[in-house]
């Protein structure tokens, strides 16, 4: 107990040292330095966690055969995608567990705990023997490892978005939200770059399928340890420290139940955005390979290039939201996504040019970034300090489990049934649901609850 109290006192002292001056407009050099440092340290773990998650999707083309004995590559990908999707259903549990820890005992404690759990999940995948060696135990262990990763990621989003929103300057929250999302996409890009390096420089396709697919998961476990080292000394947020004594006197679950409307709003905000995000990230690599017909090298290069483009857009869109508000960007995503998803995916499916495929995916990212760049801050601004991590994390994790993590499986199931275009309309329908939400909700830049303790 003494150690815990000492760590809290140290965090409070660190936060006091790094707290900005009240008069700053967000462009003061010292103010930018301390905020950027805190956000980058907090986001480093975000990058690594998303690297680990995307490594599963990016390398499933190589390891699926090691865990599933079917001879049909599409059936193997469906099996791997099923585990990927099923694991998302433990994310709400992770969001509740780490969200409660963040809201009662500090954002830093939750963020350090989540990244350690990710380390164990990645390490387990790296060392699990293939089906040929241990039979059905292999996919069972793989599923267990994915459960650990999803528990971790369930806690990462709510706690990370909360930390970001509380550290960012009030007038620059959109920009810093975009910076935070850069690390998320950066994690995915890192996984793609590891794949590209292994494909082009070090291993043959047969070596990748035999054992090379284990390398990225071993790297992920090591990087998770690095993230823990960085995060254990990160300062606690000033908003949490200021509200701590008030929070301790209240029951967070009672407050959360009272704010059910905001939680419902998180679901509506997320449905379309998460389906679009997973369509153009985790599923896109399989789509380019299995539907467009590009080879492994072309698929990897296009995916990496489009992620670089998406990465550049995030802080630009976020900064734009600081000037014009969050709502116009969300409506822009919802309207263009509803109108453009079917034409974009149909054209992409029938193109034979890798460059044309790259441009089409970039066009999709120009639309989707209206959601991704500001989603974290919009959700965080819906809740008071006492329940911010749980309020953001739990409904988000539940929505992603149903409509995000299942995208690979749903898309492949449509393809397997011979009705691939059905998936395009499915994704469009989800975006339209969010468009209705965006049109009816208030602009959270003008109606933020960031300053409220309860």
What does this protein look like?
Helices cover 81% and strands 0% of the residues. It has 454 residues and is an all-alpha fold. The radius of gyration is 21 Å and the shape is globular. Helix 16 runs antiparallel to helix 17 (354-372). The protein has one domain (35-440): MFS general substrate transporter like domains (Growth Hormone, Chain: A). It is built from 21 helices and no strands.
CATH architecture: Up-down Bundle
- Within CATH, the superfamily carries the name MFS general substrate transporter like domains
Structural class: mainly alpha
The name CATH uses for the topology is: Growth Hormone, Chain: A
Strand content: under 5%
Number of domains: 1
Number of helices: 21
Give average pLDDT, whole number: 84
Order of helices and strands: HHHHHHHHHHHHHHHHHHHHH
The CATH class, by name, is: Mainly Alpha
End-to-end CA span: 26 Å
* Major sheet description: none
Unreliable runs: 1-23
Instruction: Count the E strands.
Output: 0
Radius of gyration: 21 Å
Helix content: over 70%
- Taken from the alpha-carbon principal axes, the silhouette is globular
Tell me the layout of helices and strands:
Elements: H1 2-18, H2 29-67, H3 73-87, H4 91-105, H5 107-127, H6 131-134, H7 137-167, H8 173-202, H9 205-210, H10 215-231, H11 238-248, H12 252-258, H13 260-279, H14 282-292, H15 296-324, H16 327-350, H17 354-372, H18 375-380, H19 388-403, H20 407-416, H21 421-440
Helix pairs in contact: 2-3, 2-5, 2-7, 2-8, 2-10, 2-14, 3-7, 3-20, 4-5, 4-7, 4-19, 5-7, 5-10, 7-19, 8-15, 13-19, 13-21, 14-15, 15-17, 16-17, 16-21, 20-21
């Amino acid at each position: 107990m003494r150690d815990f109290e000492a760590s809290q006192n140290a965090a409070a002292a660190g936060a006091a040292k790094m707290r900005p001056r009240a008069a700053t407009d967000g462009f003061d050099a010292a103010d930018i330095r301390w905020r950027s440092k805190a956000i980058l340290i907090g986001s480093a773990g975000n990058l690594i966690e998303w690297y680990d998650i995307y490594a599963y999707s990016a390398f499933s083309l190589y390891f699926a055969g090691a865990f599933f004995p079917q001879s049909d590559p599409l059936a193997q990908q469906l099996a791997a995608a099923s585990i990927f999707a099923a694991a998302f259903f433990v994310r709400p549990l992770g969001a509740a567990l780490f969200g409660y820890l963040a809201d009662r005992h500090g954002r830093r404690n939750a963020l350090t705990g989540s990244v350690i759990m990710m380390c164990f999940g990645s390490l387990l995948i790296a060392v699990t023997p293939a089906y040929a060696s241990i039979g059905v135990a292999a996919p069972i262990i793989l599923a267990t490892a994915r459960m650990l990763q999803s528990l971790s990621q369930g806690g990462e989003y709510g706690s990370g978005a909360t930390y970001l929103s509380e550290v960012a300057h009030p007038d620059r929250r959109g920009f810093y939200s975009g910076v935070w999302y850069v690390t998320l996409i950066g994690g995915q890009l890192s996984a793609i770059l590891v794949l590209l390096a292994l494909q082009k420089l070090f291993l043959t396709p047969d070596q990748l399928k035999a054992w090379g697919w284990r390398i990225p998961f071993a790297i992920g476990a090591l990087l998770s340890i690095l993230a823990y080292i960085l995060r254990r000394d990160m300062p606690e947020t000033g908003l949490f420290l200021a509200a701590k004594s008030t929070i301790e006197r209240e029951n967070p679950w009672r407050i959360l139940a009272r704010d059910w409307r905001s939680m419902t709003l998180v679901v509506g905000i997320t449905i379309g955005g998460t389906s679009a995000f997973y369509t153009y990230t985790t599923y896109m690599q399989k789509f380019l390979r299995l539907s467009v017909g590009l080879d492994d090298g072309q698929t990897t290069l296009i995916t990496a290039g489009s992620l670089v483009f998406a990465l550049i857009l995030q802080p630009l869109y976020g900064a734009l939201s600081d000037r014009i508000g969050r709502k116009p960007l969300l409506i822009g995503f919802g309207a263009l996504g509803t109108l453009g998803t079917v034409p974009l995916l149909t054209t992409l499916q029938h193109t034979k040019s890798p460059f044309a495929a790259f441009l089409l995916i970039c066009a999709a990212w120009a639309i989707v970034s209206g959601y991704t760049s500001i989603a974290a801050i919009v959700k965080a601004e819906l809740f008071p300090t006492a329940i911010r991590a749980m309020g953001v994390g739990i409904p988000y994790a539940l929505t992603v489990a149903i409509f995000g993590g299942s995208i690979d499986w749903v898309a492949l199931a449509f393809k397997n049934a011979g009705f691939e275009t059905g998936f395009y309309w499915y994704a469009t329908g989800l975006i339209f649901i969010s468009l209705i939400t965006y049109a009816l909700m208030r602009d959270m830049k003008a109606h933020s609850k960031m300053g409220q303790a309860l």
